[in-house]
Specification:
The protein is of the alpha+beta class and 346 residues long. β11 and β12 form a beta hairpin. Strands 7-8-12-11-10-13 form a six-stranded antiparallel beta barrel. The protein has a five-stranded mixed β-sheet with strand order 5-3-4-16-17. The longest helix has 22 residues, at 239-260. Helices cover 25% and strands 34% of the residues. The chain contains eight helices and 18 strands.
């Protein structure tokens, strides 16, 4: 779009007029059509809402597949989408990845947006999207409350205390956490450890942040958005949790399939699936082949399934409540497998 506009401007003005096009974060000026003066910052969520409204009449798309270079780049955007969009809007993706696109300018996050076409021609059917989450993390030890925090563009650092105790230094907190971790269960100590954060006064009150270590004074974690008063616990990968969750996903998809083939839903047909799978899960599943894909393959044999391995999984809008949702509403996951199921009705 920006390249086309640049070419149109230079063509009109000619080669003797210097032209600079800036891919800005918003514009300030008077609207050429309404003559209204506006200060309009560019907003990731706002652009999605506007596109959805123009096509479907609703700000809430049917589904969004998104990719981001870092968790910090989309934390606020995902929280806003979860707060403002319909519960039926499915969001999946990878929040820690490299990607290429054809948008025409540099960006740190992209979204493929699916909306219902309000003026679709007669005879065109309807596509629905559903998501299912398989978790793989187990909470360990005590809960802590954030007493101090700081952040840069990508990471946060914090101090905390146990309920009813004084503030603890980072070294003590990590030592206490290690005492609660039992690596004899077969989970290697080299695996990534996360904190699960319950956020105060937030619609999406739960988020995972990777633990990067400490400097004896403060804990260092990935991502941003942590506030004083937030509560967290440490989470570690757990084989039993992951295997149990895979079985639950298989049961959920079996129930979903039965609903799609009975009563008024008989005309719905699942035509494809995508899976966003943590690249670390294979270590806790002992490299068993196709284990995270098996729920879909077993329930929908012959239906096309594809996917990618991720460093951070986006998931929102589930068929049934997952274990992580019982801890608290969460959209940015870790050590998980997020399934996207697509079905069509003529």
């Amino acid at each position: 779009m920006y390249i086309m506009s640049f070419l149109q401007i230079t063509e009109k003005l000619g080669s003797y007029v210097p032209v600079i096009t800036n891919c800005s974060r918003g514009v300030i000026g008077r609207d050429a059509i309404s003559d209204e003066f506006k200060e309009q910052p560019a907003q990731f969520v706002g652009m999605i809402n506007k596109f959805s409204s123009n096509v479907s009449g609703s700000k809430s798309p049917a589904a969004i597949i998104m990719f981001s270079e870092r968790q910090a780049f989309i934390t606020a955007a995902v929280e806003k989408m979860d707060r403002t969009m319909s519960p039926e809007t499915v969001i999946v993706g990878d929040y820690e990845c490299q990607f290429q696109h054809t948008i025409g300018y540099i960006c740190v996050a992209v979204a493929l947006v699916f909306v219902k076409y309000s003026n679709k021609p007669h005879g065109i059917g309807e596509t629905q999207f559903h998501a299912v989450l398989s978790s793989g993390l187990l909470p360990i030890g005590h809960a802590y409350k954030v007493t101090f925090f700081g952040e840069d563009r990508f990471r946060s650092w914090l101090n905390a205390k146990r309920e009813g105790s004084h503030e603890l230094d980072a070294g003590t907190i990590w030592k206490l956490a290690l005492e609660d971790v039992c690596y004899s269960l077969g989970v290697p100590a080299s695996l990534r450890v996360f904190i699960g954060l319950e956020k105060v006064g937030c619609t999406t009150p739960f988020a995972f942040h990777e633990y990067y270590g400490d400097d004896e004074e403060r804990l260092h974690v990935g991502g941003i958005g942590i506030k004083k008063g937030d509560t967290f616990r440490f989470y570690r990968p757990d084989t039993t949790t992951a295997l149990s969750s895979v079985a639950n996903v298989s049961n959920q998809l079996r129930s979903f399939k039965q609903e799609r083939t009975s009563g008024d839903n008989k005309r719905w047909e699942v035509f494809g699936g995508l899976i966003f799978n943590s690249c670390d899960r294979r270590q806790i599943l002992y490299n068993q082949p196709n284990i995270d894909s098996s729920p879909f393959l077993d329930n929908f044999p012959g239906v096309t399934l594809g996917g990618i391995f991720c460093s951070g999984e986006v998931g929102r809008g589930y068929v049934q409540e997952s274990q992580e949702q019982k801890w608290g509403r969460c959209c940015l996951h870790a050590f998980s497998a997020v399934h996207l199921i697509m079905s069509y009705r003529p």
